[in-house]
């Protein structure tokens, strides 16, 4: 009798593991393919060979790139080279991406930048917020951009127990931001287990010098985050759930979910067109290819544009799609004055004139 019970329990456990495995493949869209959608006036950006995971553009056309991300389970084309922040001026006739110098005292050797966000203060000071993973830990670095010197002055390193697995960030003040945790745990094994079991414990955190709190939770894998031009709504990409969440921001900085837009792809970083409020998303049609890298069958890229997201029927358009022959693993798409920049997790970056 005891053996029968043991065999029965083992069978149930195996069945559960099998079900979880199939569910994970569905969340990763492991069989996903993409039909090519080309743009006519595009070229690869020189100097970006190992990923531009996130991109942020200032109103004057200066572009910040977060490059060289190393992340457990992800491929890297430059595993021994630290990451950095590059800049490009879209006002130039032939813009080039150049690395910004960072002030002395900051640990450049372990710099591993992920999501980024800029904030312009009332005195026109530009702050750059960078999610950093030194030695695969989690910090948020705040820099002051010094345009005359083409450099970044490091101001502060932020660590907090409510920021265990930071992915992306949106700055709303010189020391204030919202950040996504793509996992509840910081330990790599527990992260894997959390993803496999599908706990939905990922969250969004509000940080200020006086208060740090969870303001939204229940996400499968909270990833990109951004804010509407009128500062009333936040948009959060739930990557493995294939969703964009619209959250209303309240005076106490808490968030209330008002809408969820379901998409048929893994959504990564979220950018906003400041003139129209349209949402631009770097996406992964097949997430499994990201984590099981095969140069003969590389991850594809996809860029979606969402118009009128607050309406009953938002318009979703595939602006760009590629099977990996040009661009592998698109993670962000940023728009400025008719120019589109597409970054990737660990590959190249694309510049397009629309």
From TrEMBL:
Catalytic function, reaction form: an N-acyl-L-homoserine lactone + H2O = an N-acyl-L-homoserine + H(+); a phenyl acetate + H2O = a phenol + acetate + H(+)
Transmembrane segments: none
Localisation per UniProt entry: Membrane
GO CC field: extracellular region; plasma membrane
Modification after translation (UniProt): Glycosylated.
Cysteine-cysteine disulfides: 42-352
Cofactor: Ca(2+)
Active-site residues annotated for this sequence: 114 (proton acceptor)
GO molecular-function terms, A-Z: acyl-L-homoserine-lactone lactonohydrolase activity; arylesterase activity; metal ion binding; protein homodimerization activity
Keyword Ubl conjugation in annotation: no
Family statement drawn from the similarity comment of this UniProt entry: Belongs to the paraoxonase family.
PANTHER family, per the entry: PARAOXONASE, SERUM PARAOXONASE_ARYLESTERASE 2
UniProt protein name: Paraoxonase
Organism: Urocitellus parryii (Arctic ground squirrel)
Gene behind this protein: PON2
